[in-house]
Amino acid sequence: MMGLAMHQKAHCTFSTKPLPGRALAQAQWSTLLMPRQPAATTRPAIVTTSTAARGKPLRAAATSAPPTVAPSTTTPKQLGYHMPGEFEKHQHCWMGWPDSPYLWRENAKPAQEQYAAVARAISQFEPLIMLTNPESVETAKSMLADAPNVTVVPVPINDGWARDWGPSCIVLDDKKTGSRKMAGTHWDFNSYGGELKKAMGIAPQVPNWDKDNAAGRAALQLAGLEVFESALHLEGGSIHVDGEGTLIATEETLLHPSRNPHLTREQIEDELKEFLGLEKVVWLWKGMAGDDAVVNGHVDNLACFIRPGVVALSWCDDVNDPQYERSTDAYERLTSATDAKGRKIEVIKVPCPPPLFRTYKEASGVHPDHVKLGYVPRVEGERLPASYINHYIANGGAVIPQFGGPGLERATETDAKALEVLQAAYGPERKVVGVKSREILLNAGNIHCITQQCPAAS
Known about the structure:
Layout: H1 23-30, H2 51-54, H3 76-79, E1 90-96, H4 109-123, E2 128-132, H5 137-143, E3 150-154, H6 162-165, E4 168-173, E5 180-186, H7 194-199, H8 210-222, E6 226-229, E7 240-241, E8 246-250, H9 251-254, H10 265-276, E9 280-284, E10 303-307, E11 310-315, H11 322-335, E12 346-351, E13 356-357, H12 360-364, E14 383-384, E15 392-394, E16 397-402, H13 409-426, E17 431-436, H14 438-441, E18 451-455
Parallel strand pairs: 1-2, 2-3, 5-6, 8-9, 11-12, 16-17
Antiparallel strand pairs: 1-18, 4-5, 7-8, 10-11, 13-14, 15-16
Keywords: Hydrolase
Protein name: Agmatine deiminase
Pfam family, one: PAD_porph
């Protein structure tokens, strides 16, 4: 894909509400944000290079680690690889241990407790590898001592968001022999468009993401898997696939001016298809309300494949909630679309929790120097992007966020309803398990965001 290895700086930024220090940048950024588009639009003509020229895995990352490029001069799709669905069998799960006081409150201790709870829940169903900063290895081992199916591995990281900086695993199946070769696509992770956000004076999630970018590659290398490099600025939480050639994503994320402003929608689609073995991309409009300022509307908070042809959607019935328009628009687009196999998509509505907001205590618990050092500000009263869709599908199980508790009776009710709906959706072959995860939510994501699956070899 011509020009994919090039970076172009753009003066743009984004926020959904006027927060201290963000108002001017918000106004500048909003002029670049795309308006709501109808489900079916006419695509402009574009010029791309030939398949042969496009085929070599590309890279444009600013990291200290040298790239490990696959020896082939063709893309994964040309070699026959595809990305399996998350509901297919896994070899293991990756996570990344949180330890930054500039991202997590109270020196990350509450977050570590909930990360450990998530890891224990997943490890009931499959092995889990916890990638951990070397200086935090002993802490992680101590807190996971009661989880023998969890292995703590020292790997430098900036943040514990393994879904987003982690690799997207792909497989090459030999239908004659039944054998499977595994590899992975390593995206050029840049902390949710961090370079262009910094150019506008808006703090990205972290001020430096070199370790995270390298950790995605390291995960594949430690697993002995071949690495395909893509220069696309992409996060794993911005995509969901059905394992049969279909991907869903939001325009809010993939077309956001901070990510790949030098590429058209068609060029982004082309790169996704080539590096994940896809045939079709179904575009949704926006992600969850409250998911705007940092990750910019990841699809993994809004919708996910339960199995081929079936999508679970975060659903809001309250017409006065900003989420209502987002959910109804996604429902209309999904139910009017067909997948790569030509099937109509069935949608299962999963109730949203009630609107949840960051408290003063939660905001003030982050290290007081986090803004000065270039980390994203944590502001009291911000809406949190709570969703039950942001869960992890494991071998024989599914681990679901839970938000209720004292004073949160409505959330307790929706917690129970979501477990009921998802258990029915997955059926008796999976055990649905709920885990409290508000501390994870405070960092703008949830269980799916902190996990990344590695598919099974057979």
